[in-house]
Amino acid sequence: MIDWYFNQLQNAMFNFLKRKFKKRAFSFRFGLKEKIKNIFSRKKDLSAFEEFEKLLFEADLGVETSIELVEKIEKEVKKNPSLSTEEIVSILKENLLKYFPFQEDIEMKKPHVMLIMGVNGSGKTTSLIKLANLFKKEGKNVLVVAADTYRAAAVEQLEIWTNKLNLDLIKSQKGADPSSVVYDALKAAKARDVDIVLIDVAGRLHTKTDLMQELTKIKGVCAKLIDKAPHEVLLAIDATTGQNGIDQALVFHEYVPITGIILTKLDGTAKGGVAVALQRKMKIPILWIGTGEKEEDILPFEAKNFIEALLS
Predict the structure, then answer these.
(1) What are the tens digits of pLDDT across the range 268-277?
(2) Strand 260-264 to strand 232-238: parallel, antiparallel, or no bridges (unpaired)?
(3) Alpha carbon distance 171, 176 (integer Å)
(4) β-strand partners of 113
(5) Which of 27, 53, 242, 295 is within CB 3.0–4.6 Å of 70 for a Cys-Cys bond?
(6) Spans of all domains in the chain
(7) Rounded distance between C-alpha atoms, residue 254 and residue 17, angstroms
(8) What is the CB neighbour count within 10 angstroms for residue 3?
């Protein structure tokens, strides 16, 4: 009965957190709407649709997604040539929303283990710190694990942030076995009654098979110590890398199945369409987005709000 009550409380806290952040609109805009309206206000012939397809491709929606969307809009225009530019944008919006999978609420375990992956420079470590800070503000007991033992700079970065935000950190010497660091950290998490464990792994190049296999080993250690851990495997993808981000996700997913995506550096300078292409290709929900460099610059992803920003 006590365990049931605790789980209910944990779920309620996490759902409250998601609801609170969903009320915040995206502060950035990508500006596709006016460009689309400009194209179709002048003409609705073959050249207009070619121009439209080029616009979607340049916005990082990818070739396949762009072609598919153009064909759908072209079909609607042929059925009803009098469609206004506003109606065309509305139809596009409806079709974009169909790419995004339904996001179920995540059941929070205790300790709830989250493995954060991503290539170097993707914003992986910064995203981990943002999540740790967010959970700490909600009253959770958070433990950060520095399992990137290949680079001293990676541990130093976590030390600076965890000291600044008064977060607990478990680390080891450079070159130590990452799996052993995770093992020690999870034993400590159980002893300290930790709510959430955030594990930072090396920024592995997705072409390095040996390093990818190390991720599989870490995942196995988690499962050995804590039932069904890691409960979340999040991949940080830099929104400015475009289609390369999708290639990275496909390879990571092959070795360690991804449960969610953190789309980073989505502050208005990114083209944004990669989120759509990613969902169409992988059907793995985008759970969080990074909107800046500060520790509070992270939001739960909400498809409808995102598409409003994309077509603003």
Answers:
(1) 555 788 999 9
(2) parallel
(3) 10
(4) 197
(5) 53
(6) 2-26+102-310, 32-97
(7) 31
(8) 8
